[in-house]
Specification:
Length: about 375
Protein backbone atom coordinates (compact mmCIF):
# COMPACT_ATOMS: atom_id res chain seq x y z
CA UNK A 1 0.00 0.00 0.00
CA UNK A 2 1.00 3.64 -0.45
CA UNK A 3 1.18 6.07 2.45
CA UNK A 4 1.90 9.74 2.69
CA UNK A 5 3.94 10.71 5.78
CA UNK A 6 4.91 14.22 6.85
CA UNK A 7 8.34 14.19 8.49
CA UNK A 8 8.97 17.20 10.74
CA UNK A 9 12.21 16.56 12.56
CA UNK A 10 12.80 19.98 14.16
CA UNK A 11 15.83 20.92 16.23
CA UNK A 12 18.69 19.47 18.29
CA UNK A 13 18.74 15.67 18.18
CA UNK A 14 15.34 15.73 16.42
CA UNK A 15 16.78 15.24 12.89
CA UNK A 16 19.25 12.56 14.05
CA UNK A 17 16.67 10.34 15.73
CA UNK A 18 13.92 10.96 13.17
CA UNK A 19 16.25 9.80 10.37
CA UNK A 20 16.37 6.44 12.16
CA UNK A 21 12.58 6.35 12.56
CA UNK A 22 12.42 6.86 8.79
CA UNK A 23 15.05 4.17 8.19
CA UNK A 24 12.95 1.71 10.19
CA UNK A 25 9.82 2.68 8.22
CA UNK A 26 11.65 2.11 4.96
CA UNK A 27 12.81 -1.29 6.18
CA UNK A 28 9.17 -2.17 6.89
CA UNK A 29 8.28 -0.91 3.42
CA UNK A 30 10.83 -3.26 1.81
CA UNK A 31 9.94 -6.24 3.99
CA UNK A 32 6.17 -5.95 3.62
CA UNK A 33 5.83 -4.27 0.22
CA UNK A 34 4.55 -0.80 1.20
CA UNK A 35 5.57 2.57 -0.17
CA UNK A 36 6.00 5.51 2.15
CA UNK A 37 6.08 8.89 0.42
CA UNK A 38 7.89 11.23 2.77
CA UNK A 39 7.26 14.97 2.76
CA UNK A 40 9.80 16.90 4.83
CA UNK A 41 9.06 20.24 6.49
CA UNK A 42 10.74 22.64 8.90
CA UNK A 43 9.26 23.29 12.31
CA UNK A 44 10.46 24.96 15.51
CA UNK A 45 13.78 26.78 15.72
CA UNK A 46 14.86 25.87 12.17
CA UNK A 47 11.62 27.35 10.89
CA UNK A 48 12.08 30.53 12.95
CA UNK A 49 15.58 30.92 11.47
CA UNK A 50 14.38 30.43 7.88
CA UNK A 51 10.90 31.95 7.88
CA UNK A 52 10.56 33.98 11.10
CA UNK A 53 7.78 31.75 12.44
CA UNK A 54 7.84 28.37 14.21
CA UNK A 55 5.24 26.89 11.84
CA UNK A 56 4.46 28.07 8.31
CA UNK A 57 1.10 27.62 6.56
CA UNK A 58 2.84 25.27 4.12
CA UNK A 59 3.96 22.92 6.87
CA UNK A 60 0.58 23.16 8.58
CA UNK A 61 -0.98 22.03 5.29
CA UNK A 62 1.58 19.28 4.81
CA UNK A 63 0.72 17.92 8.26
CA UNK A 64 -3.04 17.96 7.76
CA UNK A 65 -2.82 16.40 4.26
CA UNK A 66 -0.62 13.50 5.40
CA UNK A 67 -1.80 10.08 6.58
CA UNK A 68 0.34 10.70 9.66
CA UNK A 69 3.07 12.96 10.99
CA UNK A 70 6.41 11.77 12.32
CA UNK A 71 7.74 14.54 14.55
CA UNK A 72 11.19 14.94 16.16
CA UNK A 73 11.66 17.62 18.83
CA UNK A 74 11.80 21.42 18.96
CA UNK A 75 13.61 24.06 21.01
CA UNK A 76 17.12 24.92 22.16
CA UNK A 77 19.24 27.56 23.87
CA UNK A 78 19.48 29.62 20.69
CA UNK A 79 15.76 30.45 20.89
CA UNK A 80 15.39 30.51 24.68
CA UNK A 81 15.23 34.28 25.21
CA UNK A 82 12.24 34.79 27.53
CA UNK A 83 11.51 38.10 25.78
CA UNK A 84 11.35 36.54 22.29
CA UNK A 85 8.07 37.09 20.44
CA UNK A 86 8.01 33.53 19.17
CA UNK A 87 9.49 30.26 20.40
CA UNK A 88 10.13 26.89 18.70
CA UNK A 89 7.60 25.23 21.04
CA UNK A 90 4.86 27.45 19.56
CA UNK A 91 5.17 25.43 16.35
CA UNK A 92 4.55 22.15 18.16
CA UNK A 93 1.63 23.51 20.16
CA UNK A 94 0.08 25.01 17.03
CA UNK A 95 0.37 21.67 15.21
CA UNK A 96 -1.24 19.72 18.04
CA UNK A 97 -4.14 22.17 18.16
CA UNK A 98 -4.47 22.33 14.37
CA UNK A 99 -4.66 18.54 14.10
CA UNK A 100 -7.01 18.32 17.09
CA UNK A 101 -4.97 15.51 18.65
CA UNK A 102 -6.30 15.80 22.20
CA UNK A 103 -5.19 12.36 23.43
CA UNK A 104 -1.47 11.79 23.84
CA UNK A 105 -0.78 8.11 24.47
CA UNK A 106 2.53 7.40 26.18
CA UNK A 107 3.20 3.71 26.90
CA UNK A 108 5.82 3.03 29.56
CA UNK A 109 7.32 -0.39 29.29
CA UNK A 110 10.32 -1.82 31.06
CA UNK A 111 12.56 -4.09 29.01
CA UNK A 112 13.84 -6.76 31.44
CA UNK A 113 17.29 -6.53 29.87
CA UNK A 114 17.48 -2.85 30.82
CA UNK A 115 16.72 -3.06 34.54
CA UNK A 116 20.48 -2.84 35.19
CA UNK A 117 20.52 0.52 33.38
CA UNK A 118 17.83 2.02 35.61
CA UNK A 119 18.57 4.01 38.75
CA UNK A 120 15.65 2.20 40.44
CA UNK A 121 15.94 -1.17 42.14
CA UNK A 122 15.02 -4.21 40.03
CA UNK A 123 12.19 -5.36 42.36
CA UNK A 124 10.47 -1.96 41.94
CA UNK A 125 10.56 -2.34 38.17
CA UNK A 126 9.16 -5.84 38.09
CA UNK A 127 5.88 -6.00 36.17
CA UNK A 128 5.83 -2.33 35.18
CA UNK A 129 3.59 -1.90 32.14
CA UNK A 130 1.48 1.23 31.95
CA UNK A 131 0.04 3.71 29.51
CA UNK A 132 -0.28 7.37 30.34
CA UNK A 133 -2.98 9.27 28.49
CA UNK A 134 -2.10 12.93 28.59
CA UNK A 135 -4.69 15.55 27.60
CA UNK A 136 -2.87 17.50 24.88
CA UNK A 137 -4.86 20.43 23.55
CA UNK A 138 -6.21 22.20 26.63
CA UNK A 139 -5.39 23.42 30.11
CA UNK A 140 -2.53 25.75 30.98
CA UNK A 141 -0.89 25.31 27.60
CA UNK A 142 -3.75 26.87 25.65
CA UNK A 143 -6.48 28.47 27.75
CA UNK A 144 -6.96 32.24 27.73
CA UNK A 145 -6.21 34.69 29.22
CA UNK A 146 -2.49 34.14 28.80
CA UNK A 147 0.35 36.63 28.63
CA UNK A 148 2.42 39.22 30.39
CA UNK A 149 1.39 42.79 31.10
CA UNK A 150 2.52 45.88 32.94
CA UNK A 151 0.40 46.71 35.95
CA UNK A 152 0.78 49.31 38.71
CA UNK A 153 2.12 46.44 40.85
CA UNK A 154 4.77 45.55 38.28
CA UNK A 155 4.80 43.02 35.45
CA UNK A 156 2.27 40.19 35.81
CA UNK A 157 2.32 36.86 33.99
CA UNK A 158 -0.90 34.94 33.50
CA UNK A 159 -1.73 31.38 32.43
CA UNK A 160 -5.17 29.91 32.78
CA UNK A 161 -6.22 26.42 33.75
CA UNK A 162 -9.54 25.86 32.03
CA UNK A 163 -11.33 22.68 30.99
CA UNK A 164 -14.82 22.11 29.69
CA UNK A 165 -16.77 19.00 30.59
CA UNK A 166 -16.61 17.89 26.94
CA UNK A 167 -12.80 18.19 26.82
CA UNK A 168 -12.49 16.15 30.01
CA UNK A 169 -14.96 13.51 28.94
CA UNK A 170 -13.39 12.75 25.57
CA UNK A 171 -9.91 12.18 26.99
CA UNK A 172 -11.19 10.14 29.95
CA UNK A 173 -13.08 7.99 27.48
CA UNK A 174 -9.79 7.20 25.75
CA UNK A 175 -8.46 6.09 29.13
CA UNK A 176 -11.46 3.89 29.93
CA UNK A 177 -11.38 2.26 26.48
CA UNK A 178 -7.64 1.57 26.72
CA UNK A 179 -8.04 0.11 30.23
CA UNK A 180 -10.73 -2.20 28.87
CA UNK A 181 -8.24 -3.72 26.45
CA UNK A 182 -5.61 -4.11 29.19
CA UNK A 183 -5.82 -4.84 32.94
CA UNK A 184 -9.10 -2.94 33.49
CA UNK A 185 -7.73 -0.35 35.84
CA UNK A 186 -7.89 3.40 35.31
CA UNK A 187 -6.15 5.97 37.49
CA UNK A 188 -7.50 9.47 37.08
CA UNK A 189 -4.99 12.07 38.24
CA UNK A 190 -6.07 15.46 39.53
CA UNK A 191 -5.56 18.06 42.24
CA UNK A 192 -9.17 18.06 43.38
CA UNK A 193 -8.27 19.25 46.88
CA UNK A 194 -7.28 22.61 45.37
CA UNK A 195 -8.31 23.11 41.76
CA UNK A 196 -11.82 23.72 40.40
CA UNK A 197 -10.88 22.15 37.05
CA UNK A 198 -9.81 19.05 38.95
CA UNK A 199 -13.08 18.81 40.86
CA UNK A 200 -14.91 18.94 37.53
CA UNK A 201 -12.46 16.34 36.17
CA UNK A 202 -13.21 14.01 39.10
CA UNK A 203 -16.97 14.46 38.71
CA UNK A 204 -16.84 13.60 35.02
CA UNK A 205 -14.61 10.57 35.68
CA UNK A 206 -16.99 9.25 38.32
CA UNK A 207 -19.99 9.72 36.03
CA UNK A 208 -18.28 7.98 33.10
CA UNK A 209 -17.26 5.07 35.32
CA UNK A 210 -20.90 3.91 35.38
CA UNK A 211 -20.59 3.24 31.63
CA UNK A 212 -17.52 1.10 32.30
CA UNK A 213 -18.48 -1.21 35.20
CA UNK A 214 -15.72 -3.62 34.12
CA UNK A 215 -13.04 -0.96 34.71
CA UNK A 216 -11.88 -0.14 38.22
CA UNK A 217 -11.53 3.64 38.56
CA UNK A 218 -9.28 5.22 41.17
CA UNK A 219 -8.68 8.92 41.77
CA UNK A 220 -5.19 9.99 42.80
CA UNK A 221 -3.89 13.45 43.62
CA UNK A 222 -1.06 14.42 41.31
CA UNK A 223 1.51 14.91 44.08
CA UNK A 224 0.76 11.48 45.55
CA UNK A 225 0.87 9.99 42.06
CA UNK A 226 4.37 11.43 41.53
CA UNK A 227 5.48 9.57 44.64
CA UNK A 228 3.66 6.30 43.89
CA UNK A 229 5.13 6.23 40.38
CA UNK A 230 8.57 5.47 41.76
CA UNK A 231 7.42 3.53 44.85
CA UNK A 232 4.88 1.12 43.33
CA UNK A 233 4.91 1.68 39.56
CA UNK A 234 3.62 -1.80 38.75
CA UNK A 235 0.28 -0.94 40.39
CA UNK A 236 -0.61 1.32 37.45
CA UNK A 237 -2.34 0.18 34.28
CA UNK A 238 -3.77 3.25 32.54
CA UNK A 239 -3.27 6.76 33.93
CA UNK A 240 -5.20 9.77 32.61
CA UNK A 241 -4.08 13.29 33.42
CA UNK A 242 -4.59 16.83 32.20
CA UNK A 243 -1.94 18.40 29.98
CA UNK A 244 0.60 19.81 32.46
CA UNK A 245 0.28 17.00 35.01
CA UNK A 246 0.71 14.47 32.19
CA UNK A 247 3.76 16.26 30.84
CA UNK A 248 5.50 16.17 34.22
CA UNK A 249 4.48 12.64 35.21
CA UNK A 250 5.67 11.13 31.92
CA UNK A 251 9.18 12.54 32.30
CA UNK A 252 9.20 10.90 35.72
CA UNK A 253 7.76 7.65 34.37
CA UNK A 254 10.51 7.59 31.74
CA UNK A 255 12.97 6.86 34.54
CA UNK A 256 11.21 3.51 34.99
CA UNK A 257 12.12 2.62 31.43
CA UNK A 258 15.75 3.59 32.16
CA UNK A 259 15.80 6.52 29.71
CA UNK A 260 13.51 9.07 28.12
CA UNK A 261 15.21 8.17 24.87
CA UNK A 262 13.22 4.94 24.72
CA UNK A 263 9.69 6.28 25.02
CA UNK A 264 7.37 6.88 22.06
CA UNK A 265 4.04 8.61 21.87
CA UNK A 266 0.97 8.78 19.66
CA UNK A 267 -1.34 11.78 19.63
CA UNK A 268 -4.80 11.08 18.33
CA UNK A 269 -8.19 12.69 18.07
CA UNK A 270 -10.10 9.69 19.37
CA UNK A 271 -9.82 6.25 20.89
CA UNK A 272 -6.82 4.37 19.44
CA UNK A 273 -7.67 1.17 17.67
CA UNK A 274 -5.06 -1.16 16.29
CA UNK A 275 -5.50 -1.57 12.56
CA UNK A 276 -7.43 1.63 12.00
CA UNK A 277 -6.53 4.28 9.45
CA UNK A 278 -6.95 7.67 11.01
CA UNK A 279 -4.55 10.62 11.04
CA UNK A 280 -2.20 10.90 13.98
CA UNK A 281 0.85 12.70 15.24
CA UNK A 282 3.81 10.65 16.45
CA UNK A 283 6.74 11.88 18.51
CA UNK A 284 9.24 10.57 21.03
CA UNK A 285 8.61 12.06 24.46
CA UNK A 286 12.15 13.38 24.81
CA UNK A 287 13.25 16.87 23.85
CA UNK A 288 16.05 18.27 21.67
CA UNK A 289 18.87 17.40 24.13
CA UNK A 290 21.11 20.33 23.01
CA UNK A 291 23.97 18.99 25.15
CA UNK A 292 24.41 15.96 22.88
CA UNK A 293 23.01 17.27 19.58
CA UNK A 294 25.18 16.67 16.54
CA UNK A 295 27.33 14.04 18.25
CA UNK A 296 25.58 10.99 16.82
CA UNK A 297 25.00 9.46 20.24
CA UNK A 298 21.27 10.06 20.84
CA UNK A 299 18.97 7.09 21.36
CA UNK A 300 16.78 6.62 18.25
CA UNK A 301 14.45 4.06 19.90
CA UNK A 302 11.86 6.67 20.94
CA UNK A 303 11.47 7.77 17.33
CA UNK A 304 11.50 4.21 15.96
CA UNK A 305 8.88 3.07 18.49
CA UNK A 306 6.80 6.15 17.62
CA UNK A 307 6.96 5.07 13.97
CA UNK A 308 5.72 1.65 15.11
CA UNK A 309 2.76 3.27 16.86
CA UNK A 310 2.08 5.14 13.62
CA UNK A 311 1.96 1.87 11.70
CA UNK A 312 -0.50 0.46 14.22
CA UNK A 313 -2.86 3.40 14.81
CA UNK A 314 -2.73 5.47 11.62
CA UNK A 315 -1.72 3.16 8.79
CA UNK A 316 -3.63 0.03 9.73
CA UNK A 317 -0.43 -2.05 9.72
CA UNK A 318 -0.56 -4.05 12.97
CA UNK A 319 1.75 -6.87 11.94
CA UNK A 320 4.32 -4.41 10.65
CA UNK A 321 4.14 -2.44 13.91
CA UNK A 322 4.79 -5.59 15.92
CA UNK A 323 7.73 -6.47 13.64
CA UNK A 324 9.29 -3.07 14.30
CA UNK A 325 8.83 -3.39 18.06
CA UNK A 326 10.32 -6.88 18.02
CA UNK A 327 13.29 -5.50 16.10
CA UNK A 328 13.97 -2.93 18.84
CA UNK A 329 13.61 -5.56 21.53
CA UNK A 330 15.95 -8.00 19.78
CA UNK A 331 18.68 -5.42 19.24
CA UNK A 332 18.49 -4.47 22.93
CA UNK A 333 18.50 -8.15 23.87
CA UNK A 334 21.68 -8.62 21.83
CA UNK A 335 23.27 -6.10 24.17
CA UNK A 336 23.48 -3.01 21.97
CA UNK A 337 23.10 0.18 24.03
CA UNK A 338 23.16 3.85 23.20
CA UNK A 339 25.06 6.01 25.72
CA UNK A 340 21.93 6.90 27.72
CA UNK A 341 21.25 3.25 28.59
CA UNK A 342 24.77 1.85 28.63
CA UNK A 343 25.58 0.36 32.03
CA UNK A 344 29.18 0.44 33.32
CA UNK A 345 31.35 -1.65 31.04
CA UNK A 346 29.05 -1.51 27.98
CA UNK A 347 30.49 0.04 24.82
CA UNK A 348 27.98 2.58 23.59
CA UNK A 349 26.45 2.20 20.14
CA UNK A 350 25.86 5.37 18.09
CA UNK A 351 22.53 6.65 16.77
CA UNK A 352 23.05 5.54 13.17
CA UNK A 353 24.45 2.13 14.02
CA UNK A 354 21.57 1.48 16.42
CA UNK A 355 19.13 2.54 13.68
CA UNK A 356 20.80 0.33 11.11
CA UNK A 357 20.78 -2.70 13.43
CA UNK A 358 17.07 -2.21 14.12
CA UNK A 359 16.30 -1.73 10.42
CA UNK A 360 18.17 -4.95 9.62
CA UNK A 361 16.27 -6.78 12.34
CA UNK A 362 12.98 -5.61 10.77
CA UNK A 363 14.00 -7.09 7.45
C1 LIG B 1 6.60 17.15 25.46
C2 LIG B 1 7.43 18.40 25.52
C3 LIG B 1 6.59 19.58 25.03
C4 LIG B 1 5.39 19.72 25.95
C5 LIG B 1 7.36 20.92 24.92
C6 LIG B 1 8.56 20.82 24.01
C7 LIG B 1 6.45 22.04 24.48
O1 LIG B 1 7.92 18.61 26.81
O2 LIG B 1 6.14 16.80 24.35
O3 LIG B 1 6.42 16.50 26.48
O4 LIG B 1 5.50 20.31 27.02
O5 LIG B 1 4.33 19.22 25.57
MN1 LIG C 1 7.50 17.00 28.20
Amino acid sequence: MDFNIAVLSGDGIGPEVTAEGVRALEAVGRAFGHRFTLQYGDVGGVSIDRFGVALTDDVRGLASDADAVLFGAVGGPKWDDPAAATRPEDGLLALRAHLGVFANIRPVKVYPELTASSVLKPHVLEGVDMVVVRELTGGLYYALPKGRSETPQGVVGVDTMRYSEAEIERVLRVGFELARGRRNKLTSVDKANVLETSRLWRTVATRLASEYPDVELEHVLVDACAMQLVLHPSSYDVIVAENTFGDILTDEAAILAASMGLLPSASLSGVPQAGMRTPGFYEPIHGTAPDIAGQGIANPCGSILSAAMMLRYSLGLTEEAAAMERAVQSVLAQGYRTADIAAGGDTATGTVQMGELIAQAVG
